[in-house]
Write a structure and sequence with these properties.
Number of strands of chain A: 6
Structural class of chain A: alpha+beta
Strand content of chain A: 15-25%
Shape of chain A: globular
Mean pLDDT of chain A: 93
Number of helices of chain A: 6
Helix content of chain A: 40-55%
CATH architecture of the largest domain in chain A: Orthogonal Bundle
Distance between the termini of chain A: 30 Å
CATH class of the largest domain in chain A: Mainly Alpha
Largest interface: A-B, 37 and 37 residues
Oligomer: homodimer
Largest sheet of chain A: 4 strands, mixed
Low-confidence stretches of chain A: none
Order of helices and strands of chain A: EHHHHEEEEHEH
Chain lengths: 163, 163
DNA sequence: ATATGTAATGTTATAATATAACATTATATA
DNA sequence: TATATAATGTTATATTATAACATTACATAT
């Protein structure tokens, strides 16, 4: 069984304005459906997170936001990120303290991330087989799962081949 | 196939001084074997990490160390932790920014962690099947793995049954 | 036993990440 | 239009981690 790739490594091509547009539309739709407010700040933070191929730091978002909105401060960004995380619109990469747009908004599992330490990009997989195996292992010792974090560190194929 | 449990949930019993002693002995042995210095600071930090059933924060270690050694400062602790991480004597739990003793020092894989949000304890598994599956999935998209982070959040059996 | 290079630790300062707490404003809807 | 709630503004501070340079301890070559 092949894992579904929710987010690919960019491989130099792919200036992903289309991804951003799609992500914003999907977010808008998903929020409207649930009667949740997709405010200007939240939209803009999501856009900034998507704007980079690499995971984005909260304070990098803040630096940009400050140029646009004099009132921007750490809570501005962290609240927006918290909202986006809760709504499944972004993921936090724990090992980097950074954020990426969710490849499939609204989607249930938390995703598995491949982190290339060479180019800094991150791919997202959705692999039900892996999720299932982890769930089974936990069950064997009576552990009830709320969330799974899978972050795979290494080198992507593009970077490997350009060495 | 059953995962090997490198570190168990304590379940109230198990005041684990024996674990600490074993861990220190194993660490000493492993360092001696490799001609690496297991200094007093490093030993003490490892001991303090092991002293708790729960993952330990760097600054909690520092608070204790300050009472024993007037020169203790953040770098004292972070350097010791960095050393212990490199030598495979402790693990960092990325989602908690905290550290646990490695259930099997010197051991190759990075372990899979079950984190109970109720009691705060962490169990460590070594599951070759899971490692293998992750490795295969990565391979399918041409990704070369350096390290795997698996942190499973939820509730341990003890806490589940005491609800 | 002493000199010497390297590794470890000491010391000070600061960077990077994140949250608390309370005030104000905007929005939905009764 | 009043009101409750959610969102944002604002200030301050907590938490986590590293940089940079000085000093000390240790291993080992002589």
């Amino acid at each position: 069984m092949q894992a579904k790739v929710l987010r690919e490594f960019s491989r130099g091509r792919h200036k992903h304005s289309a991804c951003i547009t799609d992500a914003l539309k999907a977010a808008e739709h998903s929020c409207k459906e649930r009667g949740i407010r997709f405010t200007a700040i939240r939209r803009r933070v999501l856009e900034l997170v998507w704007a980079s191929h690499e995971p984005v730091k909260a304070y990098d978002v803040l630096d940009i936001l400050r140029n646009e909105r004099s009132s921007a401060a750490p809570p501005t960004v962290y609240r927006a990120l918290e909202f986006l995380l809760e709504e499944g619109l972004v993921h936090k990469i724990e090992s980097l303290n950074a954020y990426v747009g969710c490849g499939e908004p609204g989607h249930l599992d938390s995703g598995q991330f491949l982190i290339c330490s060479s180019c800094g990009e991150v791919a997202e997989l959705d692999d039900p087989e892996l999720v299932k195996l982890i769930t089974e292992k936990a069950k064997q010792i009576g552990f009830s799962i709320k969330d799974q974090i899978v972050e795979i560190l290494g080198c992507c194929s593009q970077c490997l081949s350009s060495k």
